[in-house]
Amino acid sequence: MTQPRFFVDQLSKKQPVLIIDKEGSIGRRLAEEIQHEFLPVFVSSQKPPRDLLSSIVFVPFYKKPPKIPENKFPFIFFVDSEDRYVRGLMPSLLSYARTHDALLSVITSIYQKKPKFWEKVVGDLRSRIFVVGDVFGGELSLRSVTGSLLLSAKHKRRITLPNHGLDDVYPISIHEVVKKTLKESYSKERDVRLFHFYPQYPLTGLGLSRIIFHIFPHIKLDLEKKKKHLPSPLWFPEDGQAVPLSPLDDQIRDFFEEDPPDEKLIKIIKEKHLDISFSQFFVAGFFIMLLFLLPLFILLAFSLVGGVLTKLSIESLEASNYPEARTYASQASNSFALSEAFVDALLPVSNIVGRGVTLRTFKEKLEIGQYIDQILIDVSYGLEDYALAQQTADNSSAKAVFIRAVNKLKQAMLTLKTIEAEGGIPQEYEEKLGRVTQAGEYFLSVSDVLPSVLGFDGKRTYLVLFQNNNELRPGGGFIGSYGIMHIEKGVLIDLIIHDVYDADGQLTAHVEPPFPLREYLGASHWYLRDSNFAVDFPENAARAAYFLKLETGEVVDGVIGVDTDFISTLLTATGPIEVADYNETITADNFSEKTQQHVEEDFFPGSQKKKQFLKAFYDQLSYRILEEKSLSLPLFLDSFITSLEEKHIMIALAHETDQTPLTIANLSGSLWDSRSEREGVFNDFLGIVEANLGENKVNPYIERYIKQDVSLTDEGDLLTTVTIVYQNTSSEASLFGGTYENYIRFVVPYQTNPTTLVIDGEEQVMLATVEDISARQARGRVSTNTIQVDIGEEKNKRTVGFVIEVPPQGKKEIQVSFQSKTSFSTKDAEFTYDLALFKQPGRGEDPYSFHFTYPNAFQPVFVSEPLKFQKDSLSAFFLLKKDTSLSFILGKK
């Protein structure tokens, strides 16, 4: 929306201030207060009065929020209406405030239903949260307990208090809210970011009535024994500052001195109290039953029908009956729409009887139901078009149909993402629809390159690396086998399995191996089987494709790396696979062990046994998925997404334009770092990457515990110690056990340098690698505790590598200390620490502990999950099974 910006530029030279209030009451009064000093840009569904329009910029709010005008706002005021779409603006508003040094002031309520939403925002340095009580005044009085009592006193001269007047109320006038919000927002003191705008000690209804009697002594008071449903406060923040409020009697006097509200509002108030006879009461009750209860029953009936039809639509979609799924979803949406119409008809009456909030909440659920039905319709069209594209002979026509399918699925995923972000998926649908949310994230990330990747521009050839992570390598595991896969128009044409030694045996040229392979593995040549020695998988993929071409002449469009864990999770979705020729039943639990037995037993380079067994197994697996179609889609989505997140499957494409979206979505095991260098921010990084050089399959027996201790000094030095404790649980009797000969590399920021290395309590003398053999021999040993350390660089990261051995039933403890220089100074107002943890492909989940200490003059002002704040430090403990970020902001006390 560019028009509002033009108005802002032309209307006034005053600084613009952004005010977002869907319901409009508080926002309008904020605009009235600041219009002489600033230029209010008012975003609301309620059009302000004509006299105010001449001095503000009004941006209409319809079903969804409009695009915010692109101006520099020193202040942003956000009034929380608990609308999921409006709340969806919060991440972009916080980002805007940080980028443009603006102050974001949020007005929310103790009666809101999702306090955790704001608890995450409280720590942001550029925001202030004002939690208000029971706001009365203007249009808000109809929804306020205090306001309804005051309106009754003003227009009916009578107050009726339910539950003997013993219910608690937390009154504050709308004028007081506006006055205190502006005062605290303009204040330069920014240590406090959470403010309480409600009485510290609540009043009862009787206490409030006494204050009203002082102003209107002739008001009548009625006490009801029957307890009336009153909204209960849901959020009393423990932290923050209680703001002193004006005396309540002054606030109430100001309320009574206001101009009378809307005529319709007065009419509603006066008609709520009438003297009627018993017969009149009976007739009125009969019509209330007809006008209220009957529509209520119809409302419930239509909503129940809508729920049933939605479930039927999901079942039809899972059964690939797309037309039937659309029919059910369309009928369900119509039922929800009819229910919503009845809700709108009942809202005026429900407001009178105090059930307006309940009915509005029910209406939101009906709207969500319609969104879900639209998702089902879009998905059914998308999947139907995808199947049609596969059957279309002409490539250009097939591609057009596929793009249409992708657009439908994109629309569905965007809608689902919006609902899920607000926790709006109903419980009965959450299990089924929740599974596809993360899949939708990945789909949206790569959707633009799917036509090319899936072969709608012509047949695509992919190299599949079967990496055995029982013999761990940096890229995921030892490459014992590989496959050549062809895809055209989204259809898997074939997958041909090869023994890696078949290809390596054809290499005639010499390729010099990396120093660690030559030094520690004794490799004189470099082959496809050892091509995944880099930390960055796309680099490994490029090398693998190079070796494949060099050895076999095959050119591929991309490389897919999978390990044994991925195949095991895939078997969870397919069920057991019968390999009849070998009289074996392969399951998710025994896949690794059974294949290991068949592959390793009597193996020698050039043997056909491994290739034949793997081919028999993968042929049966492909048949189960493609022909029998017995794959459980929900289980497959779960296993596939988990494998992507934990790097048990990775994809790297040959063309950079295709690869970029995969890198950004973290689908390629890349070392690419999206973070930019900023003043006052230290971007830390830690990856621990291992290579099993013992030529055994001992990794299932290796347990490790990782601990990272970081301290920030007054001088701006960051001191880090990483401790790893290894336990080799294998024994002499263990199948595939043995000594773990581990070439370990620590990946850290480029400006970070190792300072000390301690192994089993003994400090080591670190000697930098000298690749020339004669020079290394001439240097000799410095001491008995001397270790060769390889200092390298990969993708703008520093690597520190060396070899350790962990014997069977043995234990090994390693401590490596690093030092980094940051831009931090004790004179700074704040310091941001952002740690990216890189999880090695092929590894399982390792216990990880983090501990950070900082100067006494500072304290945390923002902490990400799962960090916990302690007295003078921050700590976290979790299982490291995927790339993880930890970040926090320190501010001066």
Short recap of the structure:
By secondary structure, this protein is an alpha/beta fold. The protein is built from 26 helices and 37 strands. Helix 7 packs parallel to helix 9 (205-215), helix 15 (395-421) packs across helix 16 (427-446) and helix 22 (591-600) packs antiparallel against helix 23.
Largest sheet: 8 strands, parallel
Mean pLDDT: 81
> Structural class, please?
alpha/beta
What is the helical fraction, as a range of percent? 25-40%
> How widely separated are the two ends?
42 Å
Low-confidence stretches: 1-12, 261-292
Q: What is CATH's topology name of the domain at 681-892?
A: Immunoglobulin-like
Please give the order of strands in the largest beta sheet: 3-2-1-4-5-6-11-14
Q: What is the class of the domain at 681-892 in the CATH system? A: Mainly Beta
Number of helices: 26
What best-fitting shape do the alpha-carbon axes yield? globular
Strand content: 25-35%
CATH architecture identity of the domain at 681-892 = Sandwich
Gyration radius over CA: 34 Å
What is the number of beta strands?
37
